[in-house]
Amino acid sequence: MYDIYGCDKMDILEVQKEVREIVGPKRITTEYIDRVFYSRDLSVDPTELPSMVVLPKTVEEVSKIVKIANKRNIPIFTFGRGSTLLGLRVKENSIVINLSGMNKILNIDTASLTVTTEAGAVWLAVNATLWKKGYELSSQWHGGVISSTMGGAVAANAIARTSEPGTQVGDTLVGLEAVLPNGDIIKTGSAANPNSAPFERYALGPDITGLFLGSAGTFGIITKVSFRIRRKRNKTEYLSFSFGNYRDAVEAVKNLQQNELIQFALLVQGALPPEKENLLHIIITGNENTILRKKELAETICRMSRGKPEDPENTRRFWETYYYSWLRGMPTRYYYVRKGTPYFCPEVNAYFRIQDLPKAYDAFWEYWNKEKSADIKRVKGVLKGIDTFFTYNGGFIWFDPLFPVKDKEAINVGFEVRKEMTEKFMDLGGCPAAISSSSAPIVFSRLGTTYEFMKLLKKSIDPKNILNPGVLFPEVL
Ligand SMILES: Cc1cc2nc3c(=O)[nH]c(=O)nc-3n(C[C@H](O)[C@H](O)[C@H](O)COP(=O)(O)OP(=O)(O)OC[C@H]3O[C@@H](n4cnc5c(N)ncnc54)[C@H](O)[C@@H]3O)c2cc1C
């Protein structure tokens, strides 16, 4: 059996033998059930089964496996914990490398305020270890922290729960170690100097760290990461306000952002009673001396934009217990299983400038209630909600429709909605992040010479298209 990579069944059996010699018999599996499990992320996009799943323990093992894949023309797909909904599509006759076995915290440097971990360490576990020492990651939260690996957060460019300048996941990344598609091992930032350590990203030439951020595993396999940390903030306050319309809520957040009052603001719509539409959740962190003053100012700003105070209990539960359902005060099952029907979520997202958010919001409702309404109703699609994460100068709209997962037609309409809404967002100046197989062709086809440049980079460092083929770049470049 041949595929575009020109490897046959015999090659694959040989490769399994060679990889087994590298990692030993216990850290490679060819069992059907393991191959099914590692054939996709949390999405329902079509995919294929890999030939083997490997759990390396060291960067040297990763490098050796990549060299074999190169010699034999066999694609490699990289997994952290597979917690994205983006449509990571695996191919037949491929190797899945699962980084979750490389999960050690290697160094906490409280003098230069950095933490270095292996790429498979889980975000929440790293943060919890730091908390015990009185520190925390400078980029505090994103929704997937329970399962997200540190390397996965970098590769997917995870969107953090932060409105503070300089605290998005990428802003706080100091450097990394990666295995390139030819098997070479590189370090970025100050750690590239063998006599130094990972403490400064912008040293020793171009910002190579940035190349891996959001690269979805196409430029290299990240094996170590170093992030900025800070003293743990010892006080958190919560506020919640409802607004008569989206514009008023956005105006309030613009003023909160410009006065640097909040750690994070999140606006939710959908699946709420009409009087609670446009519910703004505000998280304020700091110390005892400053926090009450910040809270008072934030309340004044919200009232000036006609906000009505609400009970902040759901805000607190959302922040402290990580569940999205509690934003709306509902149990999780309300979203994904209604009347016994399981749903899937073909999510659509994009960053917008603060002043462009209202027109993106209007465009969404026009599409959902008018343009696409008949198709959506026919297949019983529902809206889980629209959430706007506010950054320090804009917002990240997260639009979550739900479609019955057991109905083929409903799945197709769900995919159409994802495609058409992504196109609409791009038309309106939106910039999707966390891109993967499903959204890449739509987004990148609009980037002209910028995409040509990305392809040129990919082609020069991965001429055989070994790493995550088809995830950002076409399978045959
Ligand atoms: C309840 C819930 C809430 C979520 N909320 C958010 C949120 O607020 N913000 C957000 O951004 N995401 C969110 N997500 C999505 C997801 O959790 C994050 O994007 C997370 O960072 C992915 O980590 P992972 O280790 O599971 O990566 P995976 O899903 O395994 O991988 C993601 C991509 O990165 C590549 N990759 C993974 N590890 C490496 C590596 N070491 N080297 C090279 N490439 C690699 C993979 O090939 C893939 O293309 C949420 C998910 C869930 C289930």
How many strands?
19
Ligand roster: flavin-adenine dinucleotide
Oligomeric state of shown chains: single chain
Uncertain regions spanning at least 5 consecutive residues = none
- The average pLDDT value, as a whole number, equals 92
Approximately how much helix is present in the residues?
Answer: 25-40%
Largest sheet: 9 strands, antiparallel
Specify Rg, calculated over alpha carbons: 23 Å
| Count of the domains | 3
Number of helices: 15
CATH class of the largest domain: Alpha Beta
CATH homologous superfamily label of the largest domain: FAD-linked oxidase, cap domain/gating helix
What distance lies between the first and last C-alpha atoms, to the nearest angstrom? 22 Å
User: Rough shape?
Assistant: globular
Under CATH, the topology of the largest domain can be stated as Vanillyl-alcohol Oxidase, Chain A, domain 3
> What percentage of amino acids are in beta strands?
15-25%
Question: Would you identify the CATH architecture of the largest domain?
Answer: 3-Layer(aba) Sandwich
- The SS-based structural class is alpha+beta
